[in-house]
Design brief:
The complex is a heterodimer of chains A (170) and B (508). With 170 residues, chain A is mainly alpha-helical. Chain A folds into 2 domains: 10-125, no CATH class; 130-169, no CATH class. Chain A is built from 8 helices and no strands. Chain A has helices at residues 10-23, 34-45, 50-66, 83-94, 99-117, 120-126, 130-155, 162-169. Chain A starts with 9 loop residues before the first helix and ends with a helix. Chain B is an alpha/beta fold and 508 residues long. Chain B folds into 2 domains: 7-55 and 91-140 and 193-277 and 443-506, 3-Layer(bba) Sandwich (FAD/NAD(P)-binding domain); 146-171 and 282-438, 2-Layer Sandwich (Cholesterol Oxidase, domain 2), CATH 3.30.410. Chain B contains 13 helices and 21 strands. Chain B has helices spanning 30-41, 62-69, 108-116, 125-139, 151-162, 199-205, 259-266, 325-331, 336-344, 380-399, 418-426, 485-501, 503-507; strands at residues 7-8, 17-26, 46-49, 76-78, 84-86, 141-142, 167-169, 172-173, 209-211, 214-222, 225-234, 240-253, 285-291, 306-308, 316-320, 349-356, 363-366, 372-375, 404-406, 436-438, 468-470. In chain B, the strands form 6 sheets. In chain B, strands 1, 2, 3, 9, 10, 11, 12 and 21 form an 8-stranded mixed β-sheet that branches. Chain B has a 4-stranded antiparallel β-sheet with strand order 15-16-13-19. In chain B, a hairpin with a 5-residue loop joins β4 (76-78) and β5. In chain B, α1 (30-41) packs parallel to α12 and α10 (380-399) runs antiparallel to α11. Chain B is globular, with a radius of gyration of 22 Å. Chain B starts with 6 loop residues before the first strand and ends with a helix. The model of chain B has no long low-confidence stretch (mean pLDDT 96). Classes of the chains: A mainly alpha (170), B alpha/beta (508). The interface between A and B is large, with 66 and 71 residues. Bound molecules: flavin-adenine dinucleotide and iron/sulfur cluster.
Chain lengths: 170, 508
């Protein structure tokens, strides 16, 4: 695993913290999972290429500062906006006819939502328990077919040279 | 983790070194791993260089698996309309370690086309039967045990049956798969007979050496002859480490359809055919989410237990593919409250996908720094087929009780019955609004008898260089309309036989 040690800049973190309650289920605030989601995203981005990391940062800053130009925002950046205005700003990007704006909104939502839905608390809430299932059926597999499985696995390193087999076939 | 004998990783490779072998293979995936095992068993001295790590333990943590085993954390996109998210494996054993395990032979009509139109040598179904059987036997291609099939797949089959459509059980490389639906993050039970539990241990057993965490930057040449490769260790922080040089009589590029043309191009190899990097097929894939009243729990059971083949002649097939909540949430066209509502029904959801045999062709260009970029424009014919496929898929899902279906189209209404789906899809939508993904990349160093229109000969030998073979999905002259992995492994076995049949020419 590549772990480049990527860390969100303070500003990027601030923007993501402001975005999380808009793009993730609104309960994220009451559940106190905003920072956990932003941290999980940071860990994920550590394995992305430098280009993806920089493109995300550029997108976040553009999203943050272009908000100042909106007549209804009184010069405030996205992370300074009250919730309803911040939500409307995100929606403007999400539905934008301009592909880069729309793609930024979609990709950032995608990453934050992925991070949120991978938190153990949320898996529990969804009644999603793959590890339990894996343990159960892995045991069933060995109970039912253990001997055959072991025999087949042992066969894997038995000699069976290609050219002799091909010769015999020809 | 202790590495098996014959495997070296970044912790072992701290100093520059030069190694010698008969054959050096770049990439340990479906093509490279298979070739390595077959050659090593015949006494050929083989070195494999692989950029990814040696991973053998797998669990259900999706984003951890993506970080460990997917190139660029799975976030690669082709440029075009629509942009297509594609994924390549980067781990010892390659994409086959994280693939779905579907294993179909190349359809006869495709082999026939490769024979007649591309002039490939001995490629007919009869000549290929030995090679297919050999691989199928090694990786245990079989039908699923009934207890491994979950409710989502039963619903797909019931839907096809209800409509009188052709639906068949899938052939998968598995040994009593227990239905954990974890294939894309690596098989936690060892049931999936991927290269990491078959060809790779076999290659090591017969003496091959595998250097993991080594990224090959270029193939070394003397004039038009390939004489070895040069790579750099990739450190845990992604930075470049020691230089690893391998001198060999035969160099094989098995980096997959995106990386192989880039490696050859940045090493200065040219094909007068102009086809190196061209002829890229992708089997574009679109998915829908159908929400039912009943509990489906798609993660309890194998994915893609069946394939709906009714529309194969039109170029598309359907399957049910459960995806973990995090990835569903990432790709769902919703946010905020809408996302929460969709996700609340996660356990009642069937995710079904459509795989298209494409007629669009893209290409891979190599940037000045040596990195590849895929360019792919979905043509009108394929776009129309995807639209029609979505219509048919909705018909199937509503016929077995879906309450609503989420379409992979940005901003599109959610149909609640088949008539609505038809009407909504008939209204039309821009190509850019369609969410397309793929995991099948093929064809960028096509085989063919004639160097004027093909990059390699019938056995992957580069037409315009000596000592250089391609052995991966880039060899495909055309898309094949079914999952490609078995074809890649079979061609690799056939390539191995070709090398061994011509030892004097290639290995002395
Ligand atoms: C998630 C997923 C699901 C899939 N499901 C199926 C399925 O069910 N059935 C099916 O038939 N197919 C499936 N596929 C596709 C199939 O797995 C691939 O087509 C096949 O593995 C490609 O084989 P390959 O040899 O061309 O490349 P790969 O198997 O991708 O191997 C290439 C290897 O080369 C390494 N490499 C690349 N560049 C370098 C370099 N410069 N230096 C060193 N190493 C390098 C890579 O790290 C990689 O390990 C799936 C793929 C994915 C990603
Ligand atoms: S579904 Fe079967 S093959 Fe896939 S990961 Fe689970 S046990 Fe392995």
């Amino acid at each position: 695993m590549i772990d480049s040690g990527y860390k969100h800049s303070l500003l990027a973190r601030k923007i993501l913290v402001a975005m999380a309650p808009i793009v993730c289920p609104p309960e994220i605030e009451d559940q106190d999972l905003i920072h956990a989601s932003v941290d999980a995203l940071e860990a994920f981005m550590s394995s992305c290429t430098g280009q993806v990391q920089s493109a995300t940062a550029v997108g976040l800053y553009a999203f943050e500062f272009s908000s100042c130009l909106h007549p209804a925002h009184n010069g405030r950046t996205f992370s300074q906006l009250p919730h309803d205005k911040a939500q409307a700003w995100f929606e403007l990007w999400w539905h934008s006819p301009l592909v880069p704006m729309r793609e930024f909104a979609k990709k950032t939502k995608g990453l934050l939502a992925m991070a949120y839905y991978e938190l153990p608390e949320i898996a529990e809430q969804l009644d999603y328990h793959p590890e339990k299932w894996i343990r159960l059926v892995a045991r069933r597999r060995l109970d039912l077919y253990g001997d055959e499985i072991r025999a087949k696995e042992a066969e894997n390193t038995e000699a069976d040279p290609l050219m002799a087999a091909l010769e015999a076939h020809r | 983790m202790t590495l098996p004998r014959g495997v070296y990783d970044r912790d072992d490779l701290t100093k520059d070194q030069t190694l010698f072998a008969d054959v050096v293979i770049v990439g340990s995936g479906a093509g490279g791993g298979t070739l390595a095992a077959e050659l090593a068993e015949e006494g050929v001295d083989v070195i494999v260089l692989e950029e990814g790590s040696y991973n053998t333990e797998f669990d259900s943590h999706a984003s951890k698996a993506i970080r460990r085993m997917y190139r660029d954390a799975g976030a690669t996109m082709s440029l075009g309309n629509p942009p297509i998210l594609y994924q390549e494996g980067m781990t010892v054993g390659g994409s086959a370690v994280i693939n779905g395990g579907m294993k179909w032979r190349t359809p006869d009509n495709i082999l026939h086309r490769w024979d007649v139109e591309d002039g490939l040598d001995r490629i007919g179904p009869k000549e290929m039967d030995f090679f297919f059987s050999r691989v199928e036997n090694r990786i245990n291609v079989a039908y699923q045990d009934p207890e491994s099939i979950g409710r989502d797949n039963q619903l797909l089959k019931e839907g096809a049956d209800k409509n009188g459509w052709d639906v068949i059980p899938n052939r998968r490389n598995q040994l009593h798969c227990s239905g954990t639906n974890n294939c894309a993050w690596g098989c936690p039970t060892g049931a999936k007979r991927s290269p990491i539990v078959t060809y790779i241990p076999r290659a090591l057993h017969f003496g091959a050496r595998i250097y993991s965490n080594v990224r090959v930057g270029k193939i070394l040449r003397k004039g038009k002859r390939a004489v070895g490769v040069e790579g750099r260790v990739v450190k845990a922080n992604g930075k470049t480490g020691a230089r690893i040089t391998v001198a060999a009589k035969l160099v094989v590029s098995s980096c997959g359809s995106i990386q192989t043309p880039a490696l050859l191009s940045r090493s200065g190899f040219k094909s007068p055919s102009g086809q190196l990097g061209r002829n890229l097929s992708m089997h574009p894939n679109v998915k829908v989410m159908a929400i039912f009243d009943e509990d489906v729990r798609g993660w309890e059971g194998v994915h893609q237990a069946y394939q709906v083949r009714e529309f194969k002649q039109e170029g598309f097939v359907f399957a049910a593919v459960n995806i973990p909540p995090s990835i569903v949430a990432m790709t769902a066209p919703h946010y905020g409250r809408g996302l929460a509502d969709v996700m609340a029904d996660y356990n009642k959801t069937v995710i079904a996908g459509l795989l298209l045999e494409d007629t669009s062709l893209g290409r891979v260009v190599t940037l000045p720094g040596g990195a590849p970029v895929a360019l792919y424009q979905l043509n009108q014919i394929d776009f129309e087929k995807l639209r029609r496929g979505l219509e048919m898929l909705c018909e199937l899902l509503f016929s077995v009780g879906a309450k609503r279906v989420l379409l992979p189209v940005d901003g599109m209404d959610e149909p609640t019955n088949a008539d609505e789906a038809r009407a909504i899809l008939a209204r039309g939508f821009p190509r850019s609004a369609l969410e397309v993904v793929t995991v099948h990349l093929m064809g960028t160093a096509r085989m063919g008898i004639d160097r004027r229109w093909a990059v390699t000969d019938s056995y992957g030998m580069f037409h315009d260089a000596a000592g250089l073979m391609v052995c991966d999905a880039s060899l495909f002259p055309s898309p094949i309309g079914v999952n490609p992995c078995l074809t890649i492994q079979t061609l690799a076995t056939r390539n191995a036989a070709h090398i061994l049949d011509n030892r004097k020419r290639y290995l002395q």
